[in-house]
Design brief:
Elements lengths: L16 E4 L6 H11 L4 E5 L7 H8 L17 H7 E4 L11 H20 L4 E4 L8 H12 L5 E7 L19 H15 L6 H11 L6 E7 L6 H5 L6 E7 L4 E2 L5 E2 L2 H12 L3 E5 L8 H5 E3 L5 E3 L7 H12 L6 H6 L25 E4 L2 E3 L11 H8 L2 H18 L9 E7 L5 H13 L2 E8 L2 H14 L5 E5 L11 E5 L12 H8 L3 E8 L2 E10 L1 H6 L6 E3 L1 H9 L13 H4 L3 E3 L5 E2 L4 E7 L14 E5 L7 E15 L2 E4 L36 E12 L4 E5 L3 E4 L18
Parallel strand pairs: 1-2, 1-10, 2-3, 3-4, 4-5, 5-6, 6-7, 7-10, 15-16, 15-18, 16-17, 18-19
Antiparallel strand pairs: 8-9, 11-12, 13-14, 13-21, 20-23, 20-24, 20-26, 22-28, 25-29, 26-27, 26-28, 29-30
Length: 736
């Protein structure tokens, strides 16, 4: 029973809430009680009798065969019930790093037995107990061994969300009915968990996953306690592979009506988890005196009447989580359209890649279940569906129209508007959206225009001619079928307009193209855009980093791609070695499950026109990022890149988070990829850029207060040096 409906579009895993249970060898009853009576969607259930110890069994049996005390046979539930409604909980007593040799041996034996049984049951996940101390090397070694031969099951490592020693942020109840006894119980619960993990629990997780080589099937289940770290410290977990948030009933307050509730900081944390597809699990016993009138007959979060005899003791906590879920702001239509593209790596406009390339004009390359076309912005010609994707971006062209209108007004005084004609050149005209925007700007401002539409793609030129005839622009628009770098213009332009910007500003050769085209421009002419700056920031992005692996690709025709995509992955993704080429390629991605560790810093700025005789587009920049001290340690998996462009004067366009053009950063489609959906008329206005992701071959762990230094061709200089990535453009380049 899901937490609720949010318009029918939310299909994320966070809709489902689980409950942690004690050992029960009657699994059918356990499942029925918690799902049917409790309203939960799954149980986190112990698979083995907690009293079982291998060494004791051997002594009792005398070395003979014995039946392991699992919670029932695999036949007591159907395969779909085991798979969909049960998360296995590994025995909490195990301690593989204990100094007691018998306990250590028993722990390893039991862990392997329980994981083997869970795999036999086809469970989707197992919850591993939290390490008992700061040292977890043997525990991680054993888990890593298991991961090497594990099927598709996920292992969730339980980690308490505890505070740093120097973090003063504490839990302050904001409900007037809080009692001293409640505060004392919260403190005792926090101290009990905190005593096992001193300092920063992220350090414990990081040590464990490093020993397990960042394995993609190892994830985190966070124990959310009554005390929370600072916002910066919490934020870094959004870039980690967190699958579940376990909330103990001791962490809830009591509101004025006697029902459980959470503090505002806890509410914000839980809704953030829900927004990142992290499932909530309720743990513990009823600690709140829910009014008796509500126990006689009550409506649950789905509106169903539940009698007191059937009501689960933890139902009030589930109903509260459902309340938080249902009151979350609905995603805008554009965001819903993009849900399937969150954290999905896409290849940008780039040079030849031996594993991703076009084998003929009628073939494209498929990765996973979505497909994209690998092409060069200058060396290759775009296809019709790519142009269509770009042209759906109404926001971009509105900004261009504003900039052109302002430039026309500045260029031509009102008294000369009827007599003076402005020469405007659109270089890279495509199928004509900038031509249309220019003419609309001229009509709005009452200025006269003469337009040259320069386009090198002969196929797009056919469409341009058709558009000009259809709109009756023959006397105003001259179409030039030529590469802008080779054309000899018959006259100089007053205004030069282009849309050559990539996700990182200059990564689609805008500077090189415009430097070659500015010979068309008068000395006092205007270039739109007039300047643009690239930005980067360090990010924790565990999912993106794990996805940077070679994939088995299949070549199919574009028309076949639609049906091909709908048939799912067809085993396209394969587990392969992480090679240098893929870690030296920049990827276009709708970043979502990432932790932004420091504010963006500007990298390169290009200004047009640039009539300097010593101009050069070679750039070098060394950046220093300061990670806030209350963040704690964090892992840098790479850098997120953005751009901000000044089209003309105060009219700007960009995706840098702090200054992003409305409707361009939070809802956008990549300018560097062609989507399957572009075949259809979705009715959506799709802006043009995602961020760009520069991965690091080896993630770098940074400590509180330590600076991070980087330059592009990217590498890390401090605190731990890494190799220079993409040296001399050996993996990722754009051809002129």
């Amino acid at each position: 029973m899901a937490l609720g409906e949010r318009g029918g579009w939310d299909k994320s895993e966070s809709r489902y809430c689980g409950v942690e249970t004690d050992f029960n060898d009657d699994m059918p009853h356990l499942l029925s009680f918690n799902l049917s009576s409790g309203g939960f969607d799954f149980v986190v259930a112990s698979l083995m009798d907690p009293n079982y110890r291998p060494s004791l069994m051997e002594k009792d049996i005398g070395g003979g065969s014995h039946v392991l005390p699992f919670a029932g046979s695999d036949l007591v539930l159907s395969p779909s019930q085991w798979s969909s409604h049960v998360v296995g909980k590994i025995s909490s007593w195990i301690d593989l790093d204990s100094e007691d040799e018998i306990l250590r041996t028993d722990s390893e034996t039991t862990l392997k037995q329980e994981i083997s049984w869970a795999s036999h049951l086809s469970l989707q996940a197992c919850l591993l107990p939290s390490p008992k101390g700061a040292s977890c090397a043997n525990y991680a070694r054993c888990v890593n061994q298991i991961l090497q031969s594990l099927n598709n099951m996920q292992l969730w490592l339980r980690i308490p969300l505890v505070k740093n020693d120097d973090d003063t942020t504490d839990f302050i109840p904001s409900v007037s009915t809080v009692t001293y006894a409640q505060i004392l119980s919260w403190r005792i619960f926090s101290i009990h968990v905190y005593s096992r993990v001193r300092g920063d629990s992220w350090e414990l997780w990081n040590s464990f996953r490093l020993l397990c080589e960042h394995h993609s099937q190892l994830s985190v289940a966070l124990d959310v306690l009554s005390s929370l770290p600072s916002a910066n410290s919490l934020g870094r977990w959004l870039g980690e592979p967190v699958r579940a948030a376990i909330i103990h009933t001791d962490s809830f307050l009591t509101n004025a009506r006697g029902y459980p509730c959470l503090s505002r900081r806890h509410q914000k944390l839980i809704t953030g988890f829900l927004n990142h597809s992290i499932q909530v699990v309720i743990s513990g016993k009823l600690n709140h005196g829910v009014p008796s009138v509500s126990l006689d007959s009550a409506l649950d979060h789905t509106g169903t009447n539940v009698e007191s005899s059937q009501r689960h003791s933890l139902r009030p906590y589930l109903d509260y989580i459902a309340y938080l879920y249902q009151r979350m702001d609905p995603l805008p239509e554009q965001e819903r359209f993009e849900l399937s593209y969150r954290d999905f790596l896409q290849s940008p406009l780039q040079g030849h890649n031996p594993l991703f390339h076009i084998i003929s004009d009628e073939f494209c390359t498929i990765e996973f279940s979505n497909y994209y076309l690998s092409f060069q912005p200058l060396m290759d010609n775009l296809e019709a569906q790519t142009y269509e994707t770009f042209e759906k971006d109404s926001v971009k062209y509105i900004q261009y129209q504003r900039a052109i209108g302002n430039a026309l007004v500045d260029r031509v005084p009102d008294e000369e508007a009827s007599s003076l004609t402005t020469v405007l050149m659109v270089v890279g005209a495509g199928r004509g959206p900038l031509v249309r925007a220019s003419l609309q700007a001229a009509e709005e401002t009452g200025r006269k225009l003469k337009i040259y539409a320069v386009e090198k793609n002969p196929n797009a030129v056919v469409t341009l001619h058709s558009l000009v005839r259809l709109e009756g622009w023959e006397k105003t628009v001259t179409i030039v079928s030529c590469d802008m770098r080779c054309w000899d213009a018959p006259e100089k332009a007053d205004i030069l307009v282009s849309e050559l910007l990539g996700s990182f500003g200059d990564n689609e050769l805008s500077p090189e193209c415009l430097d070659g085209a500015q010979r068309f421009l008068k000395q006092d002419g205007i270039s739109i855009p007039s300047s643009y700056t690239s930005f980067i920031q360090p990010v924790t992005a565990s999912k993106l980093h794990n996805d940077v692996i070679p994939c088995l690709c299949a070549q199919v025709s574009p028309l076949e791609a639609i049906s091909f995509s709908s048939k799912c992955a067809l085993a396209l993704q394969v587990k392969s070695h992480k090679d240098v080429v893929h870690f030296e390629t920049a990827y276009v991605v709708k970043v979502h499950s990432v932790a932004r560790l420091a504010p963006c810093e500007p990298v390169f700025t290009f200004t047009h026109p640039n009539f300097s005789t010593k101009k050069s587009n070679q750039r070098y920049k060394k950046l220093r990022f300061e990670i806030p001290s209350d963040t704690g340690s964090a892992m840098v998996h790479g850098f997120a890149g953005y751009f901000d462009a000044m089209l003309y004067k105060d009219v700007h366009l960009g995706i840098e988070p702090s200054t992003a053009t409305p409707n361009m950063f939070s809802c956008c489609a990549s300018s560097s990829v062609c989507f399957v959906e572009s075949y259809f008329d979705t009715g959506l206005q799709i802006p043009a850029w995602f961020a760009i992701f520069f991965p690091l071959r080896t993630p770098v762990c940074i400590r509180p207060g330590s600076p991070l230094e980087v330059w592009y061709e990217w590498c890390v200089a401090s605190p731990n040096p890494s190799p220079v990535h993409n040296s001399n453009g050996r993996s990722y380049w754009v051809g002129l």
